[in-house]
């Protein structure tokens, strides 16, 4: 069970709730904190104090005063008018993460909402009701207005949700669960949609997927080293310690551990003096990709426990402050940085694929073909990998350097953080396919060398992957192989091999 306090949520907690459907509860002391905060709002309304978005219009309409009898309608109108998301919906996992993260922000008691509203989030999470939320339409400042408005619609019993694997009207799902929609009061609509929970939810999922993919890529790169009889000296710890980057040091240690009993690696001077950079510099490049991941992790861990709406209510000081905590710049930068690490993970993998298939660069059968000339083998798999890598380079362009003014220039600088996070996730999908292609080629290469000479860890991984994709005996539709192996990599739980590597005591302390 995950207990929400507003300040102690971890990425592991999010993983358990989002992917393992862990039950969620509120900490015992937070309800009173939320109630006190709400009472402050009610008191200030009674005193006729002017408060942005509570008794005024929104954005450029902030100078328009709203009559008391229209305050509830103001919040409903806000949700309806701002539900302008377009495009394909986010995955159920991301929708679920958005529910969790928005609830955790409201729990802190600075948003002026009633406890009943926060409870609605918890009920939806525990019942498995996931709002259908279009991916596109957020500027990443004033919060993720459009995506969060679609989330809010579901809390009101409107819009569409996914429940038990089926998309349906929200009312139908609530009937099946025995839940009722909530009616918004003053401030609550604004509190629901002013926040960074869309970009942060996507960012958390991207972080979790990249962490797994980095571990997988190290193991696959080790198999490629065997297929190409790579020089193991380049992973000597002395070499990496003198540079000092911790992540680089640990990638080299893990590669050495994986290949410690391999009969396919070589020493410098046995076959050649030096390997190409895509083999020799695996620790330097993947280590740097780990660094982008840890930077993103640091920012995400802060943001999942952040209060990001506007205005904020400080009950003890009896004040309401309008500010800009909804601005997504920290997450936008983090996601754009993460994209660089993802891009290079794919980039160096594709170069290893080229070395595995190019007969001018190795002594393997041309394009790993079982019958070169008559059959093309892995020739066009490298094309696909190159295409995905090139697409990643386009997606890696930083979204955070762009800004388009909105709301009649009142909101004149925005982060585009949700675009950055979405592109990071898209790049991970591309990169996973590139890594899958490398694994197909590496397995074919080690078969040619002799799988009995493989390291015990890579051999075990080879055997697992071979249950998904058989050996290439003749040309076939390789798209099927790539997609099946990609799905296996995405769905794979931490393997016994990975646990064995982790037990070696060489995991970076942040992970």
UniProtKB/TrEMBL annotation:
Cytoplasm recorded as keyword: yes
UniProt cross-references to Pfam families, sorted A to Z: Lyase_aromatic (PF00221)
In-chain residues carrying the UniProt-annotated modification 2,3-didehydroalanine (Ser): 142
Post-translational modification: Contains an active site 4-methylidene-imidazol-5-one (MIO), which is formed autocatalytically by cyclization and dehydration of residues Ala-Ser-Gly.
MF term (GO), any: histidine ammonia-lyase activity
Chief location: cytoplasm
Classification via SUPFAM superfamilies: L-aspartase-like (SSF48557)
Family note: Belongs to the PAL/histidase family.
PANTHER family found in the cross-reference section: HISTIDINE AMMONIA-LYASE
Name of the protein in its database record: Histidine ammonia-lyase
Annotated source species: Ornithinibacillus caprae
């Amino acid at each position: 069970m995950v207990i929400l306090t507003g300040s102690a949520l971890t990425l592991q907690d999010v993983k358990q709730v989002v992917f393992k459907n862990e039950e969620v509860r509120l900490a015992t002391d937070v309800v009173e904190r939320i109630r006190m905060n709400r009472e402050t709002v009610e008191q200030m309304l009674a005193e006729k104090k002017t408060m942005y978005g509570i008794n005024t219009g929104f954005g450029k309409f902030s100078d328009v005063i709203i009559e008391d009898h229209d305050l509830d309608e103001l919040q409903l109108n806000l949700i309806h008018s701002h539900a302008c998301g377009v495009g394909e919906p986010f995955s159920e996992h991301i929708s679920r993460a958005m529910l969790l993260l928005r609830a955790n922000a409201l729990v802190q008691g600075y948003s002026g909402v009633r406890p009943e509203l926060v409870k609605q989030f918890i009920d939806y999470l525990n019942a498995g009701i996931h709002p259908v939320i279009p991916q596109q339409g957020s500027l990443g400042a004033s919060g993720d207005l459009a995506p969060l408005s679609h989330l809010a619609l579901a809390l009101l019993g409107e819009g569409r949700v996914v429940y038990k694997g089926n998309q349906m009207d929200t009312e139908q799902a609530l009937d099946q669960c025995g839940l009722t929609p909530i009616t918004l009061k003053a401030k609550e609509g604004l509190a629901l949609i002013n926040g960074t929970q869309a970009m942060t939810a996507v960012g958390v999922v991207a972080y979790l997927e990249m962490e797994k993919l980095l571990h997988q890529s190290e193991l696959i790169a080790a198999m490629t080293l065997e297929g190409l009889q790579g020089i193991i000296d380049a992973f000597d710890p002395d070499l990496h310690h003198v540079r000092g980057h911790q992540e680089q040091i640990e990638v080299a240690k893990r590669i050495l551990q994986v290949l410690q009993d391999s009969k396919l690696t070589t020493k410098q001077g046995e076959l050649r003096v030096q390997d190409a950079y895509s083999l020799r510099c695996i620790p330097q490049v993947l280590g740097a990709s780990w660094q982008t991941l840890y930077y993103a992790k640091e920012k995400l861990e802060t943001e999942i426990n952040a209060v990001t709406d506007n205005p904020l209510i400080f009950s003890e000081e009896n004040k309401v402050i309008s500010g800009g905590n909804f601005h997504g710049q920290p997450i936008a930068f983090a996601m754009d940085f993460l994209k660089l690490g993802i891009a290079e993970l794919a980039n160096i993998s594709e170069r290893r694929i080229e070395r595995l298939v190019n007969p001018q660069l190795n002594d393997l059968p041309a394009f790993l073909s079982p019958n070169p000339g008559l059959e093309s083998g892995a020739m066009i798999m490298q094309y696909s990998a190159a295409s995905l890598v090139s697409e990643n380079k386009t997606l890696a362009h930083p979204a955070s350097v762009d800004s388009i003014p909105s709301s009649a220039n009142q909101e004149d600088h925005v982060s585009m953080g949700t675009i950055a996070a979405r592109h990071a996730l898209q790049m991970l999908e591309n990169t996973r396919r590139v890594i899958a292609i490398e694994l197909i080629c590496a397995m074919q290469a080690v078969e040619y060398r002799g799988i009995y000479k493989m390291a015990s860890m890579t051999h075990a991984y080879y055997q697992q992957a071979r249950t998904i994709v058989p050996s290439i005996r003749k040309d076939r539709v390789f798209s099927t192989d790539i997609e099946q192996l990609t799905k296996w990599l995405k769905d794979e739980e931490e393997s016994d091999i990975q646990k064995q590597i982790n037990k070696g005591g060489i995991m970076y302390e942040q992970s």
